[in-house]
Write a structure and sequence with these properties.
The complex is a heterodimer of chains A (345) and B (276). Chain A has a seven-stranded mixed β-barrel. In chain A, strands 7-6-9-4-1-11 form a six-stranded antiparallel sheet, with no helix packed on it. In chain A, strands 2-3-10-5-8 form a five-stranded antiparallel sheet, with helices on one face. The model of chain A has no long low-confidence stretch (mean pLDDT 95). With 345 residues, chain A is an alpha+beta fold. Chain A has five helices and 20 strands. In chain B, the strands form three sheets. A seven-stranded mixed beta barrel of chain B has the order 6-11-9-10-8-7-12, surrounded by four helices. In chain B, strands 1-2-4-3 form a four-stranded antiparallel sheet, with helices on one face. In chain B, a hairpin with a 3-residue loop joins strand 3 and strand 4. Chain B is 25% helix and 28% strand. Chain B is of the alpha+beta class. The chains are: A alpha+beta (345), B alpha+beta (276).
Chain lengths: 345, 276
């Protein structure tokens, strides 16, 4: 364990990993960026506890402080020392010492207190930010865990019972904060995910491009941090030149591989849409109809198997506005949403 | 085809692709690398990360420092001035492979596929021995690195030796690590257990991905392979495999990497025509 002993893991939950904002500079080497799938929730959590919340998702230089990403069922953790914490994302009812505590605001743990993050409701992923940030070694510029590649976090794996989570020394900024209700993301189906059309929309039949945006998609249980799979209309492709068939593959959706960003939506064979997640492949050989905008990766991270999803088309400019708006909220949490009535740690 | 003018495609709000063509062609790979070098030497405001692949240079940028339109303008200018590179620095990396190894066979069988080497021989109208000879006698040009950590894609540098095969109709849910594979005319590699649909050629005892970076070959990062490397595959048998694996595991294996350069020859521009 690095840093100071912070929390004992009593119950690791379903799959809890250490995440910051990832290692995008490794993308050219084929290493996915990883990091919090719902970066907005982790960043707000970090801002709530006075941590460095890092740069914006996917392209940042500064990955910010590391916290925990929780999948569906959260961990139970016992504090080894006094700590500020915040629980964000899809957590509905965290408990401290078996008493309900609030999500989206600064919480205080005294040594010996038990934080039970609880189950996610409406969404799939919750985040736990710890004052000072989780102290694990930085690997290739990030503390994020990539389980498949055995990188980062605690030995490249999810938490286990008996782990001790180390924390760095907290910053002096221990003011209590709350994200106002109206600024909290709505969590629950039906979901709308905004995308920029392309890069290969012209390889699809025009009617299929229209159907992609007008029909409702259903989230598959096979979704994970590599990609979110969805069932919906069957999409058709335009005829390809023979040399592309020979080189790229017989499937009408095959292309000669090119770079895939996080959020790129492949439609292999036209029968299933895969919106790439933060641990997803960095390149691939299936035509992509659209790319989820970086602000809405936080939505994609939360959709649940069986949920209905509609994809919307926006311009690059609108997507950038959404990204800047999310950034503004995170900054407001750090600088403006201070609770006058609640004391410092 | 090789496009007259590159096409700029948005990849969401923080990335774009500069696409020089839609096929595999060494000239396209050289153009992608040339643009990457031009960006590195001239600098373009807002560009953060460049990702070379066979035919497209992926570019991640900060949309606050620049815009899609502004960046495309700058890139178009660089592309117009792009010198057609004919020589690139290129390392030659030798990789020992146990072709038709038991793990590949077992993996294919577990997914209901025929023996992949025999299948390759059949669809190319030749023998397994000839497939191994042709694959190991050609050098292979790495024109992209990615998919999963340690995975790359490389094309035959000797079109006369090239052969091809379709991907699996239903991709495997998993493939063991360190398997060398092929689809179309592309040789690829599963560095970590991965889903995939390429035909399995064989298994190497050496690591091309090492997150621990213990060996000096991994000094610059956990992925050995770089775009612009040439790979040479050396056929080995089971005994040699075990012996080399032991060396790798005990840290005594010495990577076989030769610095050099590669010159674009006339005959390599016909790779696509040879694909059949």
């Amino acid at each position: 364990m690095d840093g100071l002993p912070g929390l004992d893991v009593v119950d690791p939950g379903l799959q809890t990993t250490v995440q910051d904002l990832g290692r995008p500079r490794q993308i050219p080497h084929g290493i996915p960026p990883s990091g919090a799938f719902d970066a907005f929730s982790l960043r707000v959590g970090n801002a709530l506890v006075g941590n460095n919340f890092g740069d914006g998702p996917i392209i940042g230089v500064d990955p910010g402080a590391a916290g925990l990403e929780v999948l569906v069922k959260g961990p139970a953790l016992v504090a080894r020392r006094d700590l500020s914490v915040a629980v964000t994302g899809a957590a509905s009812m965290p408990m401290i010492n078996r008493r309900p505590a609030q999500a989206w605001q600064t919480l205080r743990l005294a040594a010996g207190d038990e934080l039970d993050v609880g189950r996610c409701q409406g969404g799939t992923r919750a985040y736990v930010a710890l004052g000072g940030g989780i102290a694990v070694p930085s690997v290739l510029g990030s503390r994020s865990t990539n389980v498949r590649a055995r990188l980062g976090g605690i030995d490249g794996r999810p938490l286990r019972a008996g782990d001790v989570i180390g924390v760095s020394v907290a910053t002096r900024d221990a003011r209590a904060r709350t994200l106002p209700h109206e600024a909290r993301p709505r969590c629950g189906a039906p979901w709308t995910v905004r995308t920029v059309p392309g890069p290969h929309d012209e390889l699809f039949e025009p009617g299929s491009v229209a159907a992609f945006f007008s029909d409702v998609w259903t989230v598959s249980p096979k979704s994970d941090r590599m990609g979110c799979r969805l069932y919906g209309p069957t999409l058709a492709f335009r005829p390809r030149p023979r040399y592309v068939e020979a080189q790229a593959g017989a499937d009408p959706s095959n292309i000669v591989d090119d770079p895939i960003p996080v959020g790129g939506i492949q439609v292999p064979s036209g029968t299933e849409a895969i919106a790439m997640g933060v641990d997803g492949p960095t390149m691939g050989g299936y035509a992509r109809i659209a790319t989820v905008i970086t602000a809405d990766l936080s939505v994609l991270a939360q959709v649940r198997p069986g949920d209905a999803v509609q994809f919307a088309a926006v311009t690059v400019e609108q997507a950038v506005q959404a990204r800047v708006a999310a950034e503004r909220v995170v900054e407001q949490v750090a600088n403006e949403f201070i609770d006058a009535g609640r004391g410092a740690l | 085809m090789l496009y007259q003018e590159p096409v700029f495609r948005p990849l969401g709000d923080v990335a774009l692709g500069v696409e020089f063509g839609d096929e595999l062609d060494l000239r396209l790979s050289f153009r992608v690398i040339a643009l990457q070098q031009a960006i590195a030497s001239e600098g373009l405001r807002g560009v953060l990360i460049t990702v070379p692949t066979h035919r497209t240079l992926g570019i991640y940028y900060d949309p606050v420092q620049t815009t899609f339109e502004k960046l495309c303008g700058g890139l178009r200018r660089l592309c117009d001035e792009l010198v057609d590179l004919t020589v690139l620095p290129s390392r030659r990396v030798s990789i020992q492979v146990w072709y038709d190894d038991p793990w590949s066979r077992e993996c294919a069988a577990a997914h209901g596929a025929p023996n992949n080497l025999r299948y390759l021989a059949e669809v190319n109208g030749t023998t397994v021995a000839e497939i191994v000879r042709r694959h190991s006698e050609s050098e292979h040009w790495v024109s992209s690195v990615g998919f999963q950590p340690g995975t790359y894609q490389a094309m035959f540098l000797d079109p006369g030796l090239a052969f091809s095969a379709p991907k699996y109709q239903t991709p495997r849910t998993t493939t063991p690590e360190r398997i060398v594979c092929l689809a179309g005319q592309i040789t690829s590699f599963y560095a970590i257990p991965s889903p995939g649909g390429y035909q399995l050629l064989g298994r190497t005892p050496i690591e091309l991905y090492d997150p621990t970076q213990r060996d000096p070959a991994f000094r610059d990062g956990p992925v050995l392979t770089r775009v612009g490397d040439r790979h040479r595959y050396l056929p080995i048998d089971g005994d040699e495999y075990e012996s080399l694996r032991h060396q790798v595991e005990t840290g005594t294996y010495e990577y076989w990497i030769e610095e050099g350069e590669y010159r674009l020859h006339g005959q390599h521009t016909t790779i696509s025509a040879a694909s059949g």
